[in-house]
Amino acid sequence: MRSSDMSAARQAMSPILTTSMEDYIKAIYKAQRRHGRATTVLIANRMQVSAASVTKMLKRLARFDLALYEPYQGAELTETGRCIALEIIRHHRLLELYLAERMGYSWDEVDAEAEALEHVISEAFEARIDALLGYPDTDPHGHPIPSREGHIRDNALYTPLDQIEAGERAVVRRVSDRDSCRLRRFGDLGLFPGRSVHVLAFEAGRLQMRVAGSPQEMESVLAEGVYVERAAPKRCMNGNG
Predict the structure, then answer these.
(1) How far apart are CA 136 and CA 146, in angstroms?
(2) pTM here?
(3) What is the dihedral of CA 119, 120, 123, 124, to 10 degrees?
(4) For residues 30 and 152, is the Cβ–Cβ distance under 8 A?
(5) Distance between CA 146 and CA 150 in Å, rounded?
(6) Confidence check: pLDDT of 57 > 80
(7) Neighbouring C-beta atoms of residue 121, cutoff 10 Å
(8) Chain segment 98-148, per-residue pLDDT in tens
(9) Closest to 110 (Cα-Cα) out of 96, 127, 129, 120
(10) DSSP states of 54-106 as a string?
(11) Residue 18 binned pLDDT confidence (cut-offs 50, 70, 90)
């Protein structure tokens, strides 16, 4: 998929695309990426709407060949729908990074602002932000920014922090950005992408750890929203080379 394909797909559908349709397309893409298929329940939970509202929208998207929909089976995006989703996500994540790095927004504030702006910026505006930021790969939360060519990095190899064993070391790669309160908590603990984490113990529902060398403690349930890359185990030297 070329950059022109992404923007052309959205431009071609612009007479009928609404902000609500774009939000659903993005939600379907994210559900597919995480779960393999976007069920009505998954979409309803992500959009915080009723199942009936989801079904109505999925039928509408199917009429315009933006999604394939089967009753009780959920939906998956067509190639056109996927192009539009990636274009919107690229806008959103570049905007989040711009707001955080250049305008002083905290990382728990950027999502709402980017959500409003992602639907209205032009491709020229997007390109200028991209260049101004140095062609970044990730947003402030570590989520991959789709490239202009429509490629997006796979984060499947990252492990939730609650699955790391005591004694293991890891590096934070991304954090869930769906809850601003949790983001503030992660920020207070220093759990930013790129920070080192040494898991010490899980005790009484709490995680004891060191973040960039500083002792920290948090509720174990929050650890599922922090995704890390496990450090390679150190090799033992036996003196034989």
Answers:
(1) 10
(2) 0.87
(3) -150
(4) no
(5) 6
(6) yes
(7) 16
(8) 999 999 999 999 999 999 999 999 989 999 999 999 999 999 999 999 998
(9) 96
(10) HHHHHHHHHHTTSEEEETTTEEEE-HHHHHHHHHHHHHHHHHHHHHHHHS---
(11) very high
